[in-house]
Amino acid sequence: MIEIQPIHSTPNATIEVPGSKSYTNRALLVAALAYGDTTLTGALFSDDTHYMCNALRKLGIHISEDRGQSTFQVTGNGGNIPVDGAELYIGNSGTTSRSLASYVALGHGEFVIDGDEPMRRGRPISDLLNALMQLGVSARSKYDNGHLPVIVQADGIEGGKTHLDTSKSSQFLTSLMLIAPYAKNGMEIEVIGELKTPYIDITISVMEAFGVKVLNKDYRYFHIEGGQQYQPCSYHIEPDASSASYFFAAAALTGGTVTVRHLHTDSAQGDVQFVRVLEQMGCKVTVTGSGITVKGPHQLKGIDVDMKDISDTALTLAAIAPFADSKVAIRNIEHTRWQETDRIHAMVTELRKLGVSVVERQDGLEISPTPITPAVVDTYNDHRVAMAFSLIGLKVQGIRINNPECVSKTFPSYFEVLEGLYS
User: Fold this and answer.
1) What is the pLDDT of residues 106-164, one digit of tens each?
2) Does a structural domain hold residue 392?
3) Which residues are part of the catalytic machinery?
4) What is the DSSP letter of 107?
5) CA distance 164 to 341
6) Quick one: 252 and 120 in the same domain?
7) Beta strands in 100-253 (DSSP E)
8) Cα separations (Å) of 90 from 31, 212, 234, 261?
9) pLDDT tens-digit profile of 290-340?
10) Within a 10 A sphere around the Cβ of 106, how many other Cβ atoms?
11) How many domains in the chain?
């Protein structure tokens, strides 16, 4: 447990956040599919990337790392998986489990993917398995419940046409897209249901940086020709916009000024647009060649906002919402009920514990301005709950965070970086 101390002077800080998880895990897999040596710089070192690297190593990929330089060296096998089976443990990493389910189908043999209890219980994968089965892949949930463990009886992928329901996660589509060039006949994917398009923009940008072309028709139909090969290269990973959101929100909450270096609003990361939400709440946002600066107002304004495309920052907004001058409504994030935890229910539960007036809806919540009652915040082993709710402690004495170590999933040094706001 950690207790967050209030900031008694207005912060004026310049922050560096780690590399993007979304970019790092995609780039690791694409580098594994390329034939030859790739260097990834600016990379994230966290639980999620650790599990991805360990799984790829068990599948015959050589990966060396330099944490001090935030660099991975990956020697790819050109789509060949030299082992005839493996048991892969992915902890609580949704991106790793979904990506590997398609990747191992390129091999030959039995591959088992398993993870922590929250992955087994709360993170669905059946829609991806259904799409793989349409492509001729033998992929099933071991207990027929649509969750891990997953068993893939691999014998390569012929490819062809498939339909995919993306309403629960865009990661299903990313998983198929990344390996599609190595299917013998390529892949045509028709999307059914809602889709968080910014994450697919990230997927396409990584694929194209490594030399593969993607035909995207209005995010409803994707065509990726077979026979394409990812080309090894030197690839730089930009800072994580979701991680940056906590520091932008800290500026908003305290009336201070925070700059996150090397992050830009033209990023494919949807969560960078969280600064536009803060603008509507009264913050001043400045974008320069060196980064993004947010200056907080004297008083935050209430807002009604659709956060479907930036839902990882919904918790960040929920944490600062009680300090606004009127209600804050967060809408269109039902899919977050199937993430590390049911995030809507977690937000509602912990805010109420802090004395906040909250209305829970199926696709979001409505938060009223309320004085905060000090309390211990439970994190549900969800890194974003821990990081978001820690922000309240910048304003209110007595906010304690249970299991703060869970931030290691994407931002192991979060609380150390947060300390930079006090100096």
Assistant:
1) 999 999 999 998 889 878 999 999 999 999 999 999 999 999 999 999 999 999 999 99
2) yes
3) 312
4) S
5) 23
6) no
7) 108-114, 138-141, 150-155, 160-165, 187-192, 215-217, 221-224, 234-236
8) 19, 27, 26, 31
9) 999 999 999 999 999 999 999 999 999 999 999 999 999 999 999 999 888
10) 20
11) 2
